[in-house]
Amino acid sequence: MHKIQHSAHKLLVYVETLGLFIIAISTVIAIGFEIAVMVRAQTVTLGDLLLLFIYLEVLAMVGIYLKSGKLPVRMPLYIAIVAMARYMILDMKNLDTYRMLGLAAAMLVVALAILVIRYGHTQFPYKTKDEENL
Fold it and tell me: Which residues have C-beta within 8 Å of that of residue 86, sequence separation ≥ 6?
């Protein structure tokens, strides 16, 4: 039974690593496409820069996960805030007051969630495996 569990765990690790590499490669391809769009347009907009920033955050998230085996919950939240800001900037003329307030409120809620998570990590840190065995 233990051998089957070990084999299943090993398979899941391989699939997980493959998935992370697919995400990383896809993100690099998307960065290339965005750069090509900017070159063709011969201009760089704030929306372009924010999109590139989102791509870099995704790559950083994959790198952190590959290095530590842990996914910081804050990373996707940071990406969400930048994505909402990008949406607001790109569609500013078409946003009515309620949608703008809704987006601002959503950004505030996500920012507060990040603060709560940071507070929780500093006040109630996880124990390492060595600390748990004591």
Answer: 47, 50, 51, 54
Q: How far apart are CA 76 and CA 64, in angstroms?
A: 12
Domain spans in the chain, listed from the N-terminal domain onward: 1-70, 72-125
- Identify the burial level of 77 via C-beta atoms within 10 angstroms of its C-beta, where 0-12 means exposed, 13-18 middle and 19 or more buried: middle
pLDDT tens string, the chain, 134 residues long: the values are 677 787 888 889 899 899 999 999 999 999 999 999 999 999 999 889 999 999 999 999 999 988 888 877 888 999 999 999 989 888 888 889 999 999 999 999 999 999 999 998 888 887 766 665 55
How many residues make up the chain in this entry? 134
